[in-house]
Amino acid sequence: MKYKTITGLLAITLLAGCSSSKKVVPDVPPSQLYSESQESLQSGSWQTAIEKLEALDSRYPFGAYSEQVQLNLIYAYYKSDDLAMALASIERFIRLNPTHPKMDWVLYMRGLTYMAQDTNFMQSLFNVDRSDRDPEPAKSAFADFKKLLERYPNSQYAADAQKRMYSLKNRLADYDLATADFYLRRKAWIAAINRAQEIQKTYPDTEAARKSLSIELDAYKKLGLTESAQRTEQLMKLNPLP
After folding, report:
1. Segment 90-107 mean pLDDT
2. Domain range spanning residue 72?
3. What is the mean pLDDT of the chain?
4. The Cα angle at residue 67 between residues 40 and 84, in degrees rounded to 5
5. Count of domains in the chain?
6. Which of 78, 132, 168, 169 has CA atoms 20 to 30 A from the CA of 24?
7. pTM reported for the whole predicted model
């Protein structure tokens, strides 16, 4: 009975996938198609906008709307949570338009897209701590926001990028803290100390840096390094947790 139920669910899923296949976009003038895509974007009809923009992109790759169509596709893919397509579109745009005047926005969108990749749906839904999850998307987002600030310090997106970098810095520090704690629990004392000190060096103004001191202290005590443990205790007194 369970096998039949699963089979039925799979069949429904396959039918749903077939029924949601993309519609054929009418062959209308590019100006009309672009206008319709703009209306879909403004109303938040992301999938409809994507269908029309993709049609424009494939039918008129060198048309008057070409660059803006690519930019709009980046935004529509991002808003529809098709992050892989958003990143692919961003890479394509950067390759074809390396000096475009809206490159600050493109970098900003790539940072946002990597941040969205880093977000875990189940974590958001149930508020589950997953600081030990793969930090690579967060690192990529941080690098893009940093690049935006370095290249376009007067960009209208700079202030928000800086705020997001602060959040990402704490996210990356928490990951390293979870790693240091993992080493401590596995009795890899030297590895725990090295990771804790790396946190303190790279992210000195984070809560994770202060928490890492207790991991470092435990490891020193396990190794019998009394002087190092005492120095760490002094640091803990100078950098108390809130």
Report:
1. 96
2. 27-89
3. 87
4. 70
5. 1
6. 78
7. 0.79
